[in-house]
Every structure is written in structure tokens, then in C-alpha cells.
UniProtKB/TrEMBL annotation, chain A:
Keywords noted in UniProt: DNA-binding, Phosphoprotein, Transcription, Transcription regulation
Residues in OmpR/PhoB-type domain copies: 122-218
Modified residues (4-aspartylphosphate): D49
GO cellular component: cytosol; protein-DNA complex
Species: Roseibium aquae
DNA-binding region, residues: 122-218
Regions that span the bilayer: none
Superkingdom per UniProt: Bacteria
Stated name of the protein: DNA-binding response regulator
InterPro entries: CheY-like_superfamily, OmpR/PhoB-type_DNA-bd, Sig_transdc_resp-reg_receiver, WalR-like, WH-like_DNA-bd_sf
Gene behind the chain: tctD
Domain Response regulatory: residue ranges: 1-114
GO terms (BP aspect): regulation of DNA-templated transcription
Entries under Pfam families matching the protein: Response_reg, Trans_reg_C
GO-annotated molecular function: phosphorelay response regulator activity; transcription cis-regulatory region binding
From TrEMBL, chain B:
Alphabetically ordered keywords of this record: Kinase, Membrane, Periplasm, Phosphoprotein, Transferase, Transmembrane, Transmembrane helix, Two-component regulatory system
Name of this chain's protein: histidine kinase
Chief place where the protein resides: membrane
Organism: Roseibium aquae
UniProt GO MF annotations: phosphorelay sensor kinase activity
Amino acid sequence: MLLVEDNDELAETIIDRLRAEGHSVDRERDGNEANELLRHFKFDLVLLDVNLPGRSGYDLLRSLRARTDDTPVIILTARSQIDDRVLGLDAGADDYMVKPVDFRELSARCRVLARRRAGSASNIFSAGTLSFDRAAKRATINGQDAQLRAREIQLLEIMLDNIGRMLTKEEVADHLYTFSEAPSMNAVEQIVTRLRRKLDGTPLVIKTARGLGYMAYLADDE
Amino acid sequence: MMNERQSHSLQRRLLATMAVGFALLLVLISALLWTYAQAAANRTQDLLLAGAALAILDRVSVRTNGATVDLPNSAMDILSLNPVDRVKYRVFVPGQREITGTRDLPAAGDLTPSIEPVFYDSVYRGSVFRFVLQGRQINTPEGRTWVAVQVGQTVEQRTAQQRSFFTTGLAGLAVLSLIGLGFVWVAIRTSLAPLRQIALDLARREPGDLALVEGVPPREIKGLFDAINGFIIRLRRSRTLTETFIADVAHQTRTSLSAMQGHLSLAADAKDPNQMRTRLIKADRQAQRTVRLTNQLLANAMVIHRSDKASLQPLALKPLVRDILGESLRDSQMRAVSLSFNDDDLAVGTDVIAGDEVSIGEALRNLIENAVRHGPVDNTVMITLASDESRVRLSVEDAGPGIAETDMARATDRFTSLSDYTKGSGLGLSIVKAVAEGHGADLKLGRSSLGGLNVTLIFQRLAVLVLLLAGVLVEPEPAAAQTLLIHSATDPPAMRPLVESFENRNPGVKVNYVEFQTLSLYQSVLQPDTARQPDVVISSAMDLQVDLVNRGLARRIKVTPENAPPDWAVWRSELFGFTFEPAVVVYDRREISSEELPLSHRDLASFVRSNEDRFRGRIGTYNIRQAGIGYLYATQDSLQGPQALRLFEVLGRAGLRTFCCTADMVAAMSNGEIAFVFNAIGSYASHYAAESPYLGLHFFDDYNLVMSRTAFVPKTSTNPVVAAQFIRFLLSEEGQRIISEQTPLLPLLPVANPKSAIEREIENRRGTFLPIRLTPGLLTFLDDLKKQDFLSGWDMSLGYAP
């Protein structure tokens, strides 16, 4: 992964932390140079500071997305006004954190993004005892078929694509049902409940926030 | 800081109060002024009406068949002094019979005629008229009887005059009031000087200077003065508190940092790795606390700063709350917390308040963080949005330990909360309180049904105004080609160049020109058949045209001052003359030499009398029963004095021959049947004279009557805009040039370089031309009795048997 951060002290601690977790981390100090680097090399994840010499983090992110590069990006900023958050997400950031950053939180968010990317990029997703083959539309727990129905497979796919991201019930229903089918919110709830029961014991947790929606995360990330 | 929008100026308020006083006074005076103006305007009009009524009454006489009247021209002339208003009159024997005039004029209630004139306003055919009613007793064969005269005039001039009296008077008063207000202004400035002194004192101060304002204020502002000083004292106290707060903050931060530093130094010096780890864990915990403290202090500062800026905007709470909750859920600390959002009691669209997105977001985030941080790991947090008619409630409840009832009041206190930090109500709640204050919202702390704390913010809803824009439907202009229908008593060839030129200038307009005789045109306008009504009526019979306009049948037309005809050729901005056509003598050069031509009307009488045999049966003029223009010339001649009547007698004795029209007279002259024509229309005559070498034209030296062809747009016109354009075109420089150059008619205004012989002749004799004025005076000879009298007098002069 790539860390773009001009403060040496902070950069050093972040790099040490991430390396200790087994990631390989490159670091860039200057916005323009980081942009050049991203032009030629592919990274799994970019941690991006906003206030940079040369070129601001937002500009860098925008030119990255303009090249249709979908490398996951977490923005690090010292400012916490909502405008900053909106600006960052609008520019195409996947997540957003305010300094001073809690390292445990940072690692957790990195893992979520890595998972999400892995979940959508490769055909086989596996976490702990759970394994899901996208091509075959088949989920196994401890090597045994999880006996999921078609709708539950669909839901699992949606949840894996959006790990760490909150989905409203309506969004889930839109994915599950075609335009001509009348989606029922009760049915969505039932499918979620069934899937959750079947995934019991695996690290994948589907959390319900009443009135808001659902969010999937992996318990072993903690 | 005072809110700018709410601030008002004392000076302005005082001035406004005075202005209202002056305005009330003005209203009172203007009511009096209005009554006075009305009386004055009435008096002016009544004088004219009374004069006209008297003039008519004077001419009431008795004949064999009872009372009759010879309508005097003077009556109409008096009324014509008012250049605007239409005229009605009626002469009748009360309760018995009508003598002449308009029969259906409204009577004044049960008024009986008396010798004294009685004035009253009444409505006749949709217009307000001022009437006078006056009577006179006369002796008839049947005995003494009353004859009443009723004369009426529309009140347009009176209304204008009244308005003008009124506005002039009012303008004077208004100026006086303004000057008065000026004095008031000066007085206020002077008495407010002490206030400015205080303002100056405060403005010059350094921000830190909290000394009391010195001086002895006037009694009236002593309260303000004391209040300012009281405020300064409170500000000092508040500053002390702030200083305490900063000291407290400094203390907390520094203590926190020292502790961390201490743990770190100990860790660095530790020999035993286990001991070192313990120290480091403590340092890390201390660092987390310091970070949170700093974050909250910054958030607090930001919220306070933003509430100062009054940056409130219409804001929908629901999307904002959902966004923030969604964001909070990403935090890995929230994994075990059960978070729910309840908007069951929020009707759609009722969540809009005047708010600052950033501040409210910060408050909500702090409340959630508080709940999570101070509650158990598997805490339950419920956020509720609900609305009623005027308010929106935002509650955050949790199942944590909550705050003891006794501490509730102190929980949000900014200056004391820090000491309670470790117990749970930290700066978080004081941030929420600051946000609530910044939004004018209520902050309520209570016990939640979940077991923990319930923090509720109650905002005032923003009424969403739905502006119903009245759909203004603009009706499309009719796309069909526009036809302008002209009914005219003028030869089509004379008008053709004008019509064609108008059509060329207005593409899409087609003119339909229909020719009439003057009388039949008059009758067709009075009694319209079902066919389409004309858009323009043109006639040479000025009296008949005035009569039509006097009946209120014409539409007003705006003409630019540079194209406006001279006064005599326009009436009420409704009837416009556009030609200049003098009466002329046409003579046969073979019969009469230019030397013996008479110079005046009187000379003409002598000339004919002394050559009676030579001209017997060889003098021509219009048949005034058939030709409206002949009647007009003859009646106008009769007004010039008794010599005109003598002339008619002389002409009659010489066997005057009468014709229907100029063309016939000219034809008779070419045949040698007649030697000269009296009162021919100059324009046509000059046209014929130009073609025939032996036709001569002759003007008199005393006076020459001038007729003008007139045009008006009837109210029934279906195409009034184009019709008005046509009339403006007739009067325009271009129209007048075409009349001069391309038609036999003569232009109303003198041309720069007269080309035709008659134009040059007219130019040489400018002073002798007597234009017939377009006024109600022309109505005199349209009176039935008057007309009968005149025609029978004419017949008698000409020797016809009555």
C-alpha cells in the first residue's frame, strides 16, 4: 500500500504499525510525486493526507479517479468539518478518517477495504470457516455446503461487496428483486434473519441497525 | 452583538412617528381640500351651464302652435369654452311636450322648473353629466305656461380640474411637511448627541478595555447608560470565568500531557520489559484521553464560533441524521453497540429547520460518542426524530448508567463540567448545549426508558412555503391578417394613395374602403346594422361628426404632440381633422374677368344685384338639403353676420341653381350653363381647375370658410389599435405629404414648398381663412327646430314656396 503523508513523525509511526501487521508500505511526501507514482504502479490501498506540498490530496484523488483507477483510498485529514468529508467522498474516497488517528481503527478500516476489494475482485472469498465461490454461487462453512437458497446467495453477495458499508433496507431490496417484482420489506428482513442464522459461527456478521439498514463486517478483524 | 436585522434607528423611529403625524394631518387637510376643489370645479362648470341655459331661455318664444325656441349659437359657444366635455340639451314644456333636444335626459327627481337655475349630477347612458335645469314662464294662447331648459355636460374637465386643484394644494402642503420633518430631524440629531458620545467612547476602546463608561448622561438615556455599565460589569465577570475555563483547560491538558510524558519517561528508563509495557499501556490510554479532550475543546470552539456567524439555513434533519449514523456505524467501536433510528412520528417533509449542518452533526456525534464511551460495550443507542405542528424533536437515548437527578442541572455547565469529566458528563454535553443555544432550540436531559440518559433537542420547524404561482395565460394574438374597415364620405380616388401607402407600411393589414354620402354615413353609425362595424369613420360633414362624437361613440387616441393637429381641428382627442379645404368661388374666365371679381361677401351681393340679368339662373351652389357640406358652409356663413342673409336673398332673386356635388357644378360650368359657383370645395375645385384652362378660382378678402375632413375610431371598432395607427398616419408628416402631393385634397398644415396654384394662393392669404372649429358649437344647427327654421329661411330667400 501507499502512504502519502508529509509529516515524517506520523508517517513513520503509521508505516511501522502497518508493516508490523505484515503489509508492505511505500511512502510519498509530495502530492505531485505521489501522482506520478500512482500513474505507473498499482497499489492495493492508498492512505492519503489532504494537506500536501505540491498537489492537494483531493486533486490527486480526482486525477486518480479520472484515470478510472479504482484503487481504494482512505483520506486522512486534520479538519473535521462536514464539508471536508463530503468533498473527500465526492472526489472518490472509499473512507475517511480524522487525525489524530487511532491505529487500531486505521488497521480495521484498512482490512475492511482490503476485504471489500478482495470480495469483489476474486471469485473465491474466504474468511475463517466461511468460503464463497462467486462463479459457482456456492457458500461453504467448514467445507460443508451452507445450504443457502438463491435469495440468500444474492444477499450474501451484496453484503460481501459492501463490507463495512451501511446499506439501507431499500437498497438491499433493490438488489434482491427485479423491477417487476414487488419487493416486500418484511421478506427482506426474513431473508436477512435466515442468512444470519446460517452464517452463525462464521466471522461474517450482518449487523442490523433498526431504522437505518444493514452492515456486514468480519468479526475476526477485531 | 446585536442582530443587524432587528436593529432600528431611534432617529428613524422618531422621524417616522412625526411623519405619521404629519401624514394624518395631511389626510385631514386633503379631505377638506378635496371638498373645496370639488366646489370650485363645480362652480366653474356651473357658470358655463347657467350661461348656456340663460342664452337658450332668452330665445324661447311663442308661435301659433305654442312655445318654440331658436337655439342660439352662443349657447353652444359658451359650452365650447370647455374644450373637452360632451354636451346635451333639452327644451320642453314640463308635463306636456318636448320642444327640441334630447328627450330622454334624466330629470332631477321631483324638481319643478323655477326661475332659479338648479344644478345636479346624474348618469346618462353610462357617463356622469352635470345638469342645469332652469325655467321661464311665457304667455301662450292657452295661458301662462312653464318652459324648461335642461343643459348638461360630461364632467371630464371638472374632474381633471378638481384633481389639479387638489394636487397643487396637496403638493404645497407636502413640501411644508417635508420642511417640518427637516426641523424635526435636526432636533433629533441634537438631542441624540450624548448617545453618539457613548458610541464613540465604546468604539475607540481596545478589546480588552472593560472600564466603565464615564460621564453624566441626560435623564432620558440614564437607563441605557446604566445598562451598558451593568453589561460591562457582567462581561468582566464572564471574562474572569473564561479565564478560569482556559486555566482549567490548560490545567487538564497539561496534566494529561505530563502524565503521559511521565509514563513514557518511566517506560524509557524501565529495565524490566514487563514494567516498560505496563507504563506504555498507561501512556497510550493517557494519550487517548488527551486526544478526546483536544477534539472536544476544538469542537466546542468551532460550535461557538459558528453560532456567532448566524449561518443558519433551511436544513432537513432526517438525511443529516441518517448520514451521521451511517458514518458512526463504520467505527469499529460500534460493532457491539445496538444502534437504531426511529422516525415513526416524523411526517414527510416536516423535518426542515433553520440550522447549521456542521454544528448539529457535531452535537449528534458527541451524544453518540458519549453514550458509547460511558455505557457498556453492548450498549443500546436509540435516535428518534419526531415532529408536531411547530417543532422537531431529536432525541438520543441509551441504556448506559445515565446521570443522577441531582447532577442533571450541572451536567451541561461549561465551566464546571470539566471537573466531572471522568464521571461522564464532559465537554460533550456542553457542546450540545452550545449548539442548542445557537439554534434557539430547547435542550432537555432526562431518564430514558432504556435505562440511561435521554438527551432531547427541540428545534422550531421552518414553515415550508409553497408559492402558488398564478399561471398567467397570455392569449396569443390572432394570427389572421387584419382588416381595417373604413367607412368614408370621400371619393375613393382621393383617398387611395393614403390607403395604399398605409398598407405598404403595415404588412399584414388590409384596408377595406367603403364610400358613403355624408348623411347616410351618419345614419349608419347611429343605427348600425348587423354587418361589421367600421374601424374608422371619415367625413367632410364636421357637424355630423361632432354630433357622433358628442354621443360618446368615439374612442380616445393618443397622438404625439409634433403630429397633433391645431386646436380647431381636434376635439376631445377623439375627432381629428386632417385636411384644409376652403370654400371657394369657381368662375368661368370666359364669363367674368378677374378685375370685376368681388373682393368680399358684401361686394358679391352688390355685384350680383347690379348684374342680376346677366347672372339669372347662372349661379350655382350646393343644395343644402342634400349636401351636408353645403349646409355646413351656409350655416357658418350665416353666423358671420346679417350680410350673409342678404347675400342669400340676392342670390335667390338671381335664380340661384343648386347642385348635389362639385362635379355636377363643374360640369354645368363647362357646358356654359352657369357662370360661377359660390362655396365650392376648394380642394376638388382646384383639381378641376388644373385640367380646364377657363376655370378660375377666387378667394375673398374678408373671410373664407375652411372645412376639414375629420376621422374618428368608433368604440365598436374590432381593430382599434390599427385604426388608431391609421389616424396617426393621416396626421403624420408622411401622411400630410401624400395628401399634398398625390391627392386632390389639401394638407392640414401649410406645406414647405407649395406646388399647386391653390396652395400658393392659400399661403398668400393665410390671414383670411376662417377654419370651422370642431366644438359642440356645430351642434346648434343640427337642432331640429333650428334646422327647420334655417332651411325654410333658405327656401324663402331662394324664392321657393314654403
